[in-house]
Amino acid sequence: MTDRLELLDYYTLLGVEPDASVPEIKEAFRRFARRYHPDRFAGDDERLARSTQIYRRGSEAYQILTSSVSRRAYDRLLRMGKVRLGADERERAELEERRAQAPGAAPIRSAQARGLYERAAEAARAGAWRDAWRLMKSALELEPDNELLKARLNQIESRARTVR
After folding, report:
1. pLDDT score, position 23
2. Alpha carbon of residue 53 to chain centroid
3. For residues 14 and 158, which has the higher predicted lDDT (pLDDT)?
4. For all residues of the chain together, what is the average pLDDT?
């Protein structure tokens, strides 16, 4: 039997229209969090597990819908019938956006930093958030002014916090 949660798109999950503004999405997420935050279900293991699952999905929806780049990528996938935006797709969309903003500029200049970045992306895809963070931090030390690496490090830190 299919879990109903897996059938809901981010807009439906948060209870907003597809043309909702960021402030509307933030307010909807606050209502959502009050209803599904796992802290409300302490002591009831079954409901706690389910609320944690729902809350994580709502947090994912919030992160995607409040980022203009991720939201555009998500809307494209939604039109094709896909209800979730994976980490790979999100990363690809953000990289494409950065390339479009700075044509001809390589997002990562050094080969060593690029290698660390790629290893960090692999670790993130595998769910090894601590390794991903360490590798991305090392890449950023090589190129401290690189906005792409800073953004990726922030994403990894954010994702690692939601997984704990």
Report:
1. 94
2. 15
3. 14
4. 88
Compute the average pLDDT of residues 83-101.
Answer: 79
Angstrom distance (rounded) from CA 47 to CA 58:
16
Among 52-56, 122-126, 132-136, the minimum mean pLDDT is found in 122-126
User: Does 53 have pLDDT greater than 80?
Assistant: yes
The residues, ordered by sequence, that sit 6+ positions from 12 with a Cβ below 8 Å of its Cβ are none
- Mean pLDDT value across residues 130-140: 93
Report the Cα 43 to chain-centroid distance in Å: 29
Name residues whose C-beta falls within 8 Å of residue 163's C-beta, 6 or more positions apart in sequence. 127, 129
Token pair of 118 as six digits: 């790629």
Q: What is the 3-state secondary structure (H, E, C) of the chain?
A: CCCHHHHCCHHHHHCCCCCCCHHHHHHHHHHHHHHHCHHHHCCCHHHHHHHHHHHHHHHHHHHHHCCHHHHHHHHHHHHCCCCCCCHHHHHHHHHHHHHHHCCCCCCCCCHHHHHHHHHHHHHHHCCCHHHHHHHHHHHHHHCCCCHHHHHHHHHHHHHHHHHC
